[in-house]
Amino acid sequence: MSGVPEPAAVNAALVRAGVAARVTAVVPLSGGASSATYRLETEGAPLILQTAAAGTVSPGGLGRATMVAVAARAGALGLPVAPLLAVLVAEDGLGDGAVTGFVEGEALAPRWLKRAEYAQARAALTGQCAAALARLHRAPLEHWEGLALAGGSGAEQLERSFALYRLLGVDVPAFDLAFAWLKPRMPTAPARCLVHGDFRSGNLLIDQAGLAAVLDWELTHLSEPAEDLGWMCVNAWRFGVWDRPVGGFGTREELLAAYAAAGGDQIAPETLHLWEVFGNLKWGLSCLQLAHDHVSGRVRSVERAAIGRRVSEVSADLLHLVRHGDL
Prior knowledge:
alpha+beta, 2 domains, Phosphorylase Kinase, domain 1
């Protein structure tokens, strides 16, 4: 699929899925590099259509059918998620995607991180995020049975990340250092929970009371709880609010305390640091992958090419984290 979907094509897909709504307009929304997101105007409440940006799943990502199934099961645990209405099939001609209900809120992190009207939300958000993650991580692996989920121990994930790094064929000295630093430290115990995989500012829908919905489950996999917490601390997700290391709104100490208070593990600061280093490295590899998408022609995108230039930022962050232990 290329371009904005036609309302007629979306309506045909909704009819096929048994959804009683008639789309009158399809409005593109700003979103992530790997997904295309649209607001569907209807004669009633609006809906959301999200498809893979390239029409197919990005390397390492989940198909929408699996992704929305995970989100639905997470919703059954009590996490705030958008209600699933339809999963697209090949016959719809709209690519890999799904239609969900519309949840009011702001997704653009630079807005809710800095505007005065979201001050109350920011104050509550560390505890709300910690509680949502603790609830997700407590679910037994049996809760996710029947879903094709990758994952593994930290050591196994690091090994797969290094294989991707070699495949991309770019040498970044700071990445080499991070791989060498992480290799003897990554845990070898088997995965014991499902992690969101991309739980961060930018993938959270925020209203004035705080967390309204958790978005973008396409990087979900099996791992250990500290991975999600470390990912929240990656510098890129602070959007310029450098002195609040948890997503631009909280501190590491607040996050660990709130997570334990909500029934999650007691995670040591050094464990969080380990996964923060891994998270920054993973983001750096994503920058390389997105640049490769553009250069290779898989997805011609100025946005992906521009994100690829952020490898230099990640290099600086990794050097500082390995040397000083925080950022």
